[in-house]
Amino acid sequence: MRDWWPKHCTWGAKQVLSRWSHPYVGYTAGGVLTVSASLVIGGFTGLGKLLALAADAQIQLFLSDDFQHYGLRREMLEGGRPELIGPCHSWNAPHWYSSAMMLNAPRHSDHHTRPSRSFPSLGLDENTMSMLPQPLSVMACLALVPIIWRRVMDRCVAKWMALEMIRFYKLILRILLTGFVLIGGGANAETMTASEFDAYTKGKTLFFGQTGKPYGAERYLENRRVQWSFLDGICKDGYWYEEAGEICFIYEGKNTPQCWTFEEGPSGLIARFSGDPQKVDLYEVQNSDQEMICLGPQVEV
Question: Which helix H or strand E contains 155, and what residues bound it?
Answer without folding.
Answer: helix 146-185
